[in-house]
């Protein structure tokens, strides 16, 4: 045979051989992932674990009695999932307490005030109207003191307007009425755009002499539930109280201020919040020891803490129970991972991020090699994809895995980061970090609000998230990136 023909025939043979091998390999992978799905669908503990966490533990704010109860629940759940080892990892966390019921109401004085609503009363020849506001103090905020604060309200729509009107701020309550941008199809982009007013609004207003701030809730829901969340004070500004307002009340208050003006409209605000000294808490960790590379780690987790108004079912009970289910399902089908797989229920994601940083710092101190840090912290909705901190070339190389995940709802890998708890594993240990991305449209209806309860979690959607997380971890364990 002519040498060129021989060379061409050899290449064709090698290509066909590789293709046949790949087909067999894909069939094996598909069958194993189907076994993972079957055990999660048929015998899974995901929803039952979430029921126990939400209904017997409930709210789990860092430093609260509920959080320490959750630590014990996590240890028991990981033991029941047959982890080879379960332990607690110490970290110091902020200890903020709400301290009681938050209260606010508005009053409008002057001629025509009766048009503002019911409850008008004659006072010295003028009319006064009053209405309540559904609010929640923002996490890490200071309180007003027992007497509360009564002051004129200044409506601003963004930070640019605050700067333009800075001479009007002193002695007022600043009300940031910045809405979710409806042009963002991905609601996390709308949240990322709006959350600066919750995070930095108090310090920005305090710089110009504001007494307190109200913030439109970080949501586009159609109810009136206020959504709390953490703020961050700057060292250079006075700490002033801050609270989130439900959306219907935010619209009503904005209408009143635009109609009657800030001098005729006042708000009474009383919150009891207090920041106590840092206290000891723990990450809860369960591990399956690797059979070939026991000192190389794949981490999967969610954060165990939650805000206090509700049960923390979506944020982030869902991610915790999905991660535990990954371990349970791998054990249930008899899979022996090549690398060690850790489930971490992280402490203090909501108002400090201390648990994620403590985990990464300990891993660095111990000289551990981490392959992947994967988190679920976007709700228990139908899975759509994963973000991964891979280069474009490596992301393209794993695209064939998508056809293995498509039967369970995942259709894309996107370049991006991980959840906030696993992100420190990237710069500190060179790990790939990633996050499960469920459908996002409903997440901010419940995020940090009183309706974040078990009844708003769909069992099948929750299980599908666990299936895809288990499948991805299996593929990374087998093939790497």
């Amino acid at each position: 045979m002519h040498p060129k023909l021989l060379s061409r025939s050899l290449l064709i043979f090698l290509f066909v051989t590789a293709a046949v091998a790949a087909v067999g390999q894909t069939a094996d992978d598909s069958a194993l992932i189907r076994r993972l799905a079957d055990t999660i669908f048929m015998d899974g503990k995901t929803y039952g674990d979430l029921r126990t966490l939400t209904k017997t533990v409930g709210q789990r704010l860092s430093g609260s009695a509920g959080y320490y109860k959750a630590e014990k629940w996590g240890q028991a759940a990981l033991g029941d999932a047959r982890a080879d080892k379960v332990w607690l990892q110490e970290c110091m966390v902020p200890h903020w307490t709400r301290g009681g019921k938050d209260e606010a109401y508005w009053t409008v004085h002057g001629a025509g005030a009766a048009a503002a609503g019911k409850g008008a009363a004659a006072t010295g020849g003028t009319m006064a109207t009053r209405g309540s506001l559904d609010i929640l103090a923002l996490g890490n905020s200071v309180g007003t003191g027992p007497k509360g604060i009564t002051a004129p309200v200044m409506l601003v729509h963004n930070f640019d307007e605050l700067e333009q009107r800075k001479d009007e701020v002193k002695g007022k309550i600043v009300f940031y009425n910045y809405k979710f941008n409806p042009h963002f199809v991905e609601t996390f982009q709308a949240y990322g755009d709006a959350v600066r007013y919750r995070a930095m609004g108090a310090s920005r207003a305090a710089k110009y002499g504001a007494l307190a701030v109200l913030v439109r809730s970080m949501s586009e829901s159609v109810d009136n539930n206020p959504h709390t969340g953490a703020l961050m004070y700057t060292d250079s500004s006075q700490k002033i109280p801050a609270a989130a307002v439900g959306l219907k009340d935010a619209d009503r208050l904005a209408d009143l201020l635009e109609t009657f003006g800030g001098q005729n409209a006042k708000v009474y605000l009383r919150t009891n919040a207090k920041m106590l000294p840092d206290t000891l808490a723990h990450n809860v960790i369960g591990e399956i020891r690797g059979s070939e590379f026991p000192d190389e780690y794949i981490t999967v987790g969610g954060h165990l803490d939650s805000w206090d108004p509700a049960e923390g079912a979506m944020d982030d009970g869902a991610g915790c129970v999905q991660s535990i289910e990954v371990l349970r399902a791998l054990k249930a089908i008899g899979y022996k991972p090549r690398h060690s797989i850790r489930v971490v229920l992280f402490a203090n994601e909501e108002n400090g991020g201390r648990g994620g940083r403590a985990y990464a710092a300990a891993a660095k101190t111990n000289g551990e090699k981490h392959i992947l840090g994967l988190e679920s912290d976007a709700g228990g909705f139908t899975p759509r994809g994963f973000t991964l901190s891979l280069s474009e070339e490596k992301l393209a190389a794993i695209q064939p895995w998508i056809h293995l995940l498509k039967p369970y709802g995942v259709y894309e890998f996107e370049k991006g980061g991980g959840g906030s708890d696993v992100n420190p594993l990237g710069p500190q240990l060179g790990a790939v970090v990633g996050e499960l991305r469920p459908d996002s449209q409903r997440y901010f209806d419940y995020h940090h609000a009183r309706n974040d309860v078990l009844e708003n979690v769909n069992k099948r959607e929750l299980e599908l998230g666990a299936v895809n997380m288990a499948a991805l971890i299996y593929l990374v364990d087998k093939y790497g990136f």
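DSSP finds 13 helices and 17 strands in the chain. Residues 1-6, 10-24, 118-126 have pLDDT under 50 and may be disordered.
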